[in-house]
Amino acid sequence: MQLRIGKRTINFNSWKRMLYVLCFCFVCIIDQRTMTCAPNGGGREIFRDLTGIVVAALILSHYKKEDIVKYKKLYIAWTILALAGLPVLFIAGKSWLPFPLDWLVINIELFVWGYVLIAVLTRLFIEKRRPKVNGKTMTVWLIMMMLMIFSRI
Questions:
Q1: φ, ψ of residue 151 in degrees (nearest 5)
Q2: Distance between CA 11 and CA 4 in Å, rounded?
Q3: Which residues contact 115 (CB under 8 A, 6 or more apart)?
Q4: Which of 23, 32, 49, 57 could make an SS bond with 105 (beta carbons 3.0 to 4.6 A apart)?
Q5: What CA–CA distance (Å, rounded) separates 89 from 99?
Q6: Angle at Cα 39 formed by Cα 106 and Cα 25, nearest 5°?
Q7: pLDDT tens-digit map of 28-54
Q8: pLDDT tens digits, one per residue of 84-113
Q9: What residues have CB less than 8 Å from 71, skipping those under 6 apart?
């Protein structure tokens, strides 16, 4: 699939590229909606919690199907545990937050992040594969984190 904008042509042959474009579009929509939603409507909280689902999709896109199929028992066990426990959490959570749709998003987020944790932890501790860290990028990341922590909004 190609998209032509003026003289430039953007090629969308990779499913990952298309997923990245969609996820970053969702991040822009989430940012816009969290800034413009009414404070009492619950939309701000729902869109804020959707950020975790988008980030989980980006992380899971890094893993190949073979990596996930290799440990399918762990994923099946988490799916069974989540399908049994998340409705209980949804019912119990209605008393904690006044927006039931936000609790639905939080439950979906917990479900997806379980898959992310399984993928990351199996890669780190069972396969003993560690990511390569670029020192310059890590330094910039640490500086940006410190600036965000100590900024005055």
A1: -75, 160
A2: 9
A3: 56, 60, 75, 78
A4: 49
A5: 14
A6: 60
A7: 999 898 888 887 777 888 888 899 999
A8: 988 887 777 777 777 777 888 888 999 999
A9: 118, 122, 126
